[in-house]
Amino acid sequence: MGSASRKTFLPLEPMSFKNESKEVIDFISDYYQKIEEFPVQSRVEPGYLSAKLPDSAPYCPESLQDILKDVNDCILPGLTHWQSPNFFGYFQANASTAGFLGEMLCSGFNVVGFNWISSPAATELESIVLDWMGKLLKLPSSFLFSGTGGGVLHGSTCEAAVCTLAAARDKALKKLNGWENITKLVVYASDQTHFTFQKAAKLVGIPPSNFRLIETNSSTGFSMSPQQVALTIENDIKSGLVPLFLVATIGTTPTGAVDPIGELGKVAKKYDIWFHIDAAYAGSACICPELRPYLDGVELANSISMNPHKWFLTNMDCCCLWIKEPKFLVESLSSDPEILRNNASESKSVIDYKDWQIALSRRFRALKLWVVIRRHGLANLMYHIRSDISMAKRFEEFVAKDERFEIVVPRNFALVCFRIKPKEEIEGNELNRKLLEAINSSGKAFMTHAIVGGIYVIRCAIGTTLTEQRHVDDLWKLIQEKAQSLLMEKI
Amino acid sequence: MGSASRKTFLPLEPMSFKNESKEVIDFISDYYQKIEEFPVQSRVEPGYLSAKLPDSAPYCPESLQDILKDVNDCILPGLTHWQSPNFFGYFQANASTAGFLGEMLCSGFNVVGFNWISSPAATELESIVLDWMGKLLKLPSSFLFSGTGGGVLHGSTCEAAVCTLAAARDKALKKLNGWENITKLVVYASDQTHFTFQKAAKLVGIPPSNFRLIETNSSTGFSMSPQQVALTIENDIKSGLVPLFLVATIGTTPTGAVDPIGELGKVAKKYDIWFHIDAAYAGSACICPELRPYLDGVELANSISMNPHKWFLTNMDCCCLWIKEPKFLVESLSSDPEILRNNASESKSVIDYKDWQIALSRRFRALKLWVVIRRHGLANLMYHIRSDISMAKRFEEFVAKDERFEIVVPRNFALVCFRIKPKEEIEGNELNRKLLEAINSSGKAFMTHAIVGGIYVIRCAIGTTLTEQRHVDDLWKLIQEKAQSLLMEKI
């Protein structure tokens, strides 16, 4: 098995790496060029792909051309095109050239930065870029490395939730002096909070019956009532339970609602519970001074997370988590196996990010966020946010001006929640469900829905990287057209 | 904010995407070309990077050239070069052109495949490729979708551990009829098991005092004794505890040891506990018929995981998890928020992978593994494994033939654990620590260590994608040279 025979198989040879990579770049670039030609939501039926692909792996190597042909013929039809400018579903997942470049550098170096020594640049750039991002959001220095806190990149909000919940849990269990108290710990959120926090709380062993969903309603724009939270906490204390964790949201998933951070923070302080802010979607917007007030009160939080992979032109996946007292994260998540021991770690002068997250192995994600911030600069990043909000305002005005429709929840940020105003309230949900289905099955645009206060609303989330005003205008024409047909049918 | 002004900022314009991406491809290709020129382990000091970069984000966009210049000048010196052919540390993280291409497609499409409808191809390709991979490993059909089981891609073994532990936990708690029994659940592993399982067990709320580390020793090559496991289980049952989960390893991190799967499986069956196989490192090798016997007994497991991102030419991150009864995973991890409701999911005819993992959001990782398998074919993938093992054998022979050295643990796979044979045992650890430090600080190669049975061993993990026989030969010369200096010093 000498060098000679090895030459027959060179899976990372620089010249073929270069040539094949450029072929794929051309393929992806072509895809962006023709992305509007695809139906936004995939039209395939369950099981479509197994009919097109062999049921076991090939023995011999296949050519890149054959593989790309299959990507084109078999994979593209099965995609729901999140990068289409006509994608208005869920929350957007912003891709950008800069994000892609950062992802390529990450994948090309392919280092595993679990601790400082395993690639110092990976750890140090992550700390630096978390401080950059924190400063863009004007977070208090208590969350920054340049102050007394620090930040870490996770893959998802759920991961951030699992880690902060575990940190809070272990801090509490230490104080309560016994693991059996885990069944007494209680987590507070609203009925609009992302379900990922329920999942995370259950994952870390908190009984699902100890997860309190504070009810919200339209009178407060579906934001959480601090009084209600305090009342619920009092009740739990009376029952011998231990309030642990409160999560507030800036920009809820159903409607973009904003919880009153300042007031909730005071409640959290009063009862000495961990206060986490989930700004997954709308956090990005707070880089604009006119939107920064949404974060007022953040100084009362123990931790805050937001996802640059939603609205910050950063390709999947990238979630920033800042924490005031990283020691609680490290105490809960650290491990010190002999196999990873090294002088730098023992000196305590470095960060080992493996102790700030679930997994040991970790990708060099910081490169991606760093390239995104530098390539765009704060100026263009603000432009991006403002442009999306401006398009959402325009769309909101279209809706408001058409008396067949109504805005169900006042718009925050770039999410518009609307519906056809039903003649009879009882018909409203079915009517709007049909409208959404008609729009999505047209292939020309894609939106999703929510139900708030019993009302089915159509969510128009504006902010895909490629979306321009003409796409929003076309969307509104499409909605009007489909609504007209539906309303005609009814007559 | 019309289309006109939007034209000033086009962060995903296809032509600039193409041009800038190709520049980065050239940069990475150049990096591979000169990778042997860098010291393998970074020589920077803690804090080096903050001295080189500004402490806050730029307001104006910067050019790609400026960014790449900084990557070159500031980031590369801070990398420990995992893709260097002279990297023999930890376990390798195989990059390959194919893996990189798959990663680019994933990042380019940037779909978020949390459920089937959000991009059917992402879900379906993942199921297909997990079956392909399972068949390459000759897993019983009880683990495959084409049989009665199924698989999912996670980012890391720890994530797989958290999810399977949560599934086992919730299955047990349901049977025990009360969450308070969480403090009775016990997990079994060996003192060689990856520490990630301890971390995962604690994460899911199992008291750290209920994690049993079965002692191993050199007489069994540091593999776990089924008798010892059974005895420990019996003791726990007598104490009123509830045995929950047993993890066995194929290719432990310290020495590449293999636990006796078949015998351990019988113990697990007898006590009705969840049996997980961690084949993170060595699982890839089992695609070769001559190595497949290591997996004998896998039919007794409830779940098995392995990491293509280690030894299977798949860029970070990629962990395969197969499970016999996916329903337990789904029962533990599922969520059904209104906002994600759709006909396909309600029909129960599709898989929603969000219920098979921690996070909601998920990247289209399956593309990467699919491109890797197709581009290489089983033939070359086997060649890759066999070539590494052959180089490891050769290295092992070098060590065995030099009487100053000894092989401490018999080699399995492509990991060689050796040391300088000390004159006095008491000097052995310090002597070998110094040897490893001398090698690593030379910059010419990088290895890591383990301590087993009190003995400090140097681990030579062969299998970086670019490693050829000449690198292994050079490594041995370097080791001999540094050992000679050390032994001379001592005289």
Automatic annotation (TrEMBL), chains A, B:
GO terms for molecular function: carboxy-lyase activity; pyridoxal phosphate binding. GO terms for biological process: amino acid metabolic process; carboxylic acid metabolic process. Keywords: Decarboxylase, Lyase, Pyridoxal phosphate. It holds the Pfam family Pyridoxal_deC. InterPro entries: Aromatic_deC (IPR010977), PyrdxlP-dep_de-COase (IPR002129), PyrdxlP-dep_Trfase (IPR015424), PyrdxlP-dep_Trfase_major (IPR015421), PyrdxlP-dep_Trfase_small (IPR015422), Pyridoxal-P_BS (IPR021115). The modification N6-(pyridoxal phosphate)lysine is found at residue 310. CDD domains: DOPA_deC_like. Belongs to the group II decarboxylase family. This is Pyridoxal phosphate-dependent decarboxylase. The lineage of its organism: Eukaryota, Viridiplantae, Streptophyta, Embryophyta, Tracheophyta.
